[in-house]
Amino acid sequence: MAVTDEAIEKIKGMIVSGALRPGDRLPKESELAAELGLSRNSLREAVRALSLIRVLDVRQGDGTYVTSLDPQLLLEAMSFVVDFHRDDTVLEFLAVRRILEPAATGLAAGRIAVAELDALQEQLDALGPAPSVEELVAGDLEFHHRIVAACGNSVLCSLLDGLSGPTTRARIWRGLTQEGAVARTLTEHRAILGALRDGDAEAARAWATVHVASVEQWLRASL
Question: Is 127 helix (H, G, I), strand (E, B) or coil?
C-alpha cells in the first residue's frame, strides 16, 4: 500500500503542477512508470484508485485520461462514502447540512431567477396537501437541490448533494413516525420559497435552518 500511495501522490503532483491537465491523456504505462520511477504494478494500482474517485478515466482500447476535475464529478465519491454511515453518525451529517444549506439558501436569495421560483412553486402545488412519504422525500430532495444550485457555488452544491444520502433516510423515518411532519415540511418549504421570492436572504437562511434543525431534533430524540 505504501508503494501505491507513493504512485498516487506522484500522479497527483503531475496534475497539481499542471504537467497533466483536465482532458489530457496519460503517457503509456511503461513510459509513465519509468518517468516516475515506479513499477508498472504500483502505477496500475494507483490509476485504478484514482479512477474510482473520478480523477482519472480509463477508456478501454484508448488510454487513460485526466477527467474534467469538475467539483461535482470529484465529490460523487463523497456521496458514495457517506452512504455507509452508521445510524449514530447521521446526526453529524445533519449538523454539517445545517451549517451549509442555510448559507447556500441565503446566497440563492439574491441570484435565483423568477422562472425557477415559479417552477418551485409548481412543484409544491403538484405535491398537494397530503403527498406520500416517498413523494415528499423525492420532492424535498429536488426542492433543495434546485435552490442550492442557484447559489452560484458549484462546490457548495456538490457537497450538499453528497450529504443527501444519509439525510434522506432521516426524512423517511420522520415522515413515517412523526405526527404532522408532512404538513410541517410543506409549510417550511413554502416559507423558504416566500423568502426567496422576496429576495430576503436572512429570512431564507433562517427558514432553511429551521427546516434542517427540525429533522435533526427529531432524530436526536429518537436515537
Answer: helix
CA distance 17 to 133: 49
The pLDDT of residue 151? 94
Q: Which of 68-72, 121-125, 173-177, 204-208 has the lowest mean pLDDT?
A: 173-177
Cα–Cα distance, 152 to 130 (Å, whole number): 33
pLDDT for the residue numbered 84: 66
DSSP letters of 152-171? S-HHHHHHHHHTHHHHHHHH
Distance CA 215, CA 223 (A): 12
Q: Check pLDDT > 60 for residue 1.
A: no
Distance separating alpha carbons of residues 30 and 167, to the nearest angstrom? 45
Cβ-count burial 186-214 (b if 16+ within 10 Å, e if not): bebbebbbebbbeebbebbbbbbbebbbb
Report the residue count for the chain.
Answer: 223
